Amino acid sequence: MRFKHVPRLTPRARELRKNMTPEERHLWYDFLRTYPVRFLRQKVVGGYILDFYCASVKLAVEVDGTQHYTPDQIQYDAERERYLNGWGITVVRVPNSDIRTTFSEVCTKIDQIVQTRMQSINRK
After folding, report:
1. Is 71 helix (H, G, I), strand (E, B) or coil?
2. Helices 22-30 and 103-123: crossing angle, nearest 10°?
3. How do 59-64 and 90-95 pair as beta strands?
4. Which residues are CB-contacts of 107 (< 8 A; sequence separation ≥ 6)?
5. How far is CA 46 from CA 25, 37, 115, in A?
6. Which of 22, 39, 45, 113 could pair covalently with 32 via S-S, beta carbons 3.0-4.6 A apart?
7. Residue 111 backbone phi and psi in degrees, to 5
8. What pLDDT score was predicted for residue 2?
9. Do 54 and 109 touch, CB atoms closer than 8 A?
10. Distance between CA atoms of 35 and 60, rounded to whole angstroms?
C-alpha cells in the first residue's frame, strides 16, 4: 500500500530542503547524507512533511525546536505520529539541543534504531 501523494506540499518540502535549520543541516551533512541506509530529507508522506525519512526501515527522524513544546503543537505532533504509526512508520523526535550538545549520541541512537529495524525486517 502506498501513501497518497499530496502535490500541494511538494513546493513547501522543496523550500524546507533549501532552508534547513542549523540543527537539521548538521544532522544531514554530518551524518544522514552519507549513512549507508538511504535517508531522504523533507519527504512528503501523506499530508505531512517529514524532516528525514528512511523508507527501507520506515523511520522518520524529526528535529524539534522549542515550538514543538507548546500545547497546540504537542497535540498536533501526537496526531501526526498516530497517523504515521498507522502506516508502520516509527517516529524519533530529537530536540535541537541534543544535536547541539550530544551529536554523537544522537547519531548512535539513530544507527541503533535503523540496525534493529533492519534485523527485524530480515527475520520476516
Report:
1. helix
2. 60
3. parallel
4. 31
5. 24, 22, 25
6. 39
7. -60, -45
8. 60
9. no
10. 14
List 61's β-bridge partners, or say none.
Answer: 52, 92
Place of cell 525546536: 65
Residue with cell 514543538: 68
The three cell numbers of residue 83 are: 497517523
Full-prediction pTM beyond 0.85?
yes
Q: What is the pLDDT of residues 24-45, one digit of tens each?
A: 999 999 999 999 999 999 999 9
Q: Are 60 and 90 in contact (CB under 8 A)?
A: yes
How would DSSP label each residue in 16-64? Answer: HHHT--HHHHHHHHHTGGG-SS--EEEEEETTEEEEEEETTTTEEEEEE
**Cell 548538521 belongs to which residue?**
26
**Grid cell 515550538 — which residue?**
67
